[in-house]
Design goal:
Elements lengths: L18 H8 L4 H28 L3 H5 L1 H6 L7 H22 L2 H18 L6 H20 L7 H20 L17 H27 L4 H13 L1
Helix pairs in contact: 5-6, 5-7, 5-8, 6-7, 9-10
Length: about 240
């Protein structure tokens, strides 16, 4: 009788399939999947070709570039736009740290923001060198934040604290402080564009998280009225 003396170190997990094998298994497993893959590939190719030609060669971006400030920050004072730039840089950095610490959906948001700002800095439109460099610096700040997340500072409690502090800093920077000549007050009626959308998103996320936790806990409550209210709110709203 033989005895198997293979140790745990010698038993290796199977290697993942190569790209050719993966394509054959998932996209070309039978004739109709192969046909659908080819048709979809042709459609995607011509769609991307049309979009690229339109964006880079046919579209007239002059109205957009001339109204870029209006789209971005509304009627916010031009001499105070450094506040908005500082806020976006701060958020890009925090998203990089959060990507490393939490991953998941945060990673998707971090990559999306970095991609959008990076592409905006590469668009063939007329913009100042400083603005273009600012756009391109945000993906770099996200990458730096990711590296910071790998250090001992990259702990969930510190990242959460950073987001809380950044929220209050955002409000202070946008509204200003009476009496400070370098940070004069700016009325909220002058906020607009992507700035207002971004701020409302931050407030919505910050407010919805504790409400969601409270509703989840209330759903498990032993009190029938509390449980019924939480279940109805979650299911209907």
């Amino acid at each position: 009788m033989s005895v198997n003396t293979t140790t745990a170190e010698e038993i290796r997990p199977p290697s993942p399939p190569g790209p050719i094998r993966w394509l054959k298994k998932n996209l070309f497993s039978n004739w109709y999947n192969s046909l659908l893959t080819v048709i979809s590939g042709v459609i995607v190719f011509f769609a991307l070709k049309a979009v690229i030609l339109w964006v880079f060669f046919e579209a007239n971006w002059d109205p957009v570039t001339h109204s870029l400030k209006l789209f971005a920050v509304g009627q916010y004072p031009p001499d105070q736009l450094w506040r908005v730039g500082t806020i976006v840089c701060m958020v890009s950095f925090l998203f990089g740290v959060s990507w490393k610490v939490w991953g998941g959906t945060v990673r998707t948001f971090a990559l999306a923001i970095a991609l959008v700002l990076g592409v905006a800095g590469l668009l063939p439109v007329s913009m100042g060198l400083g603005l273009r460099l600012w756009f391109l610096s945000n993906p770099l700040l996200t990458a730096i934040g990711y590296q910071v997340g790998r250090t001992p500072v990259g702990k969930a409690k510190w990242v959460a604290l950073g987001w809380v502090v950044s929220f209050f800093l955002t409000i202070i920077l946008l509204t200003g402080i009476e009496g400070l000549p370098w940070l004069p007050p700016v009325k909220s009626g002058l906020w607009g564009g992507l700035l207002l959308t971004f701020l409302l998103a931050m407030v919505g996320i910050a407010a919805s998280f504790p409400i969601g936790v409270a509703l989840a806990l209330g759903r498990q409550s032993s009190l029938p009225v509390v449980k019924a209210f939480c279940v109805l709110f979650i299911e209907l709203v």
